[in-house]
Amino acid sequence: MFFSIWKRILVGETTEKFMNMGLFDPYMVQRQSPTLRTVRMVEKTLRDGESLVTVAQLKRALPRKVHHAALLDILDYLQEKKQIYWSPKGITWLEEASPALRRIIAEGYRM
């Protein structure tokens, strides 16, 4: 009993010290990566769905529930791969874009 109380105090102080140094993020410890099946499900839903959807509309359109953090990870991944465009107005699927279209998007002005 006595040892477990001291263990909690020491671990708590150490965790707080590491968090202050930027070496420990408690949210990343409990988070798991989405599966390939989930990534493909989101891709298919975006590809076959409407042209512009919000995150809430996308969650409702998915065939099964997806954890919000996992969905945001998937959307970040798809945006890095230049398969979607994610703006404050919503998310849109980019077809197999030609290099000219990619250049226009990269050099374009934000409205």
Short description:
This protein has 111 residues and is mostly helical.
Report the span from N to C terminus: 61 Å
Structural class by secondary-structure content = mainly alpha
CATH class membership of the largest domain = Mainly Alpha
Q: Can you tell me the residue ranges where pLDDT is under 50 for at least 5 consecutive residues?
A: 1-10
Query: What percent of residues adopt helix (DSSP H or I)?
Result: 55-70%
- Which fold name is given in CATH as the topology of the largest domain? Arc Repressor Mutant, subunit A
Break the fold down into its secondary structure elements and pairings:
Layout: H1 2-21, H2 26-29, H3 36-48, H4 55-61, H5 68-80, E1 84-87, E2 90-93, H6 99-107
Antiparallel strand pairs: 1-2
Protein described:
The chain is mostly helical and 111 residues long. The chain has 6 helices and 2 strands. The chain folds into 2 domains: 1-30; 33-107, Arc Repressor Mutant, subunit A, CATH 1.10.10. The protein has helices spanning 2-21, 26-29, 36-48, 55-61, 68-80, 99-107; strands spanning 84-87, 90-93. The chain has a two-stranded antiparallel ribbon. Strand 1 and strand 2 (90-93) form a beta hairpin. The longest helix is centred in the N-terminal third of the chain and has 20 residues, at 2-21. The radius of gyration is 20 Å and the shape is globular.
Which features characterize this protein?
mainly alpha, two-stranded antiparallel sheet, Arc Repressor Mutant, subunit A, single chain, 6 helices, about 60% helix, 2 strands
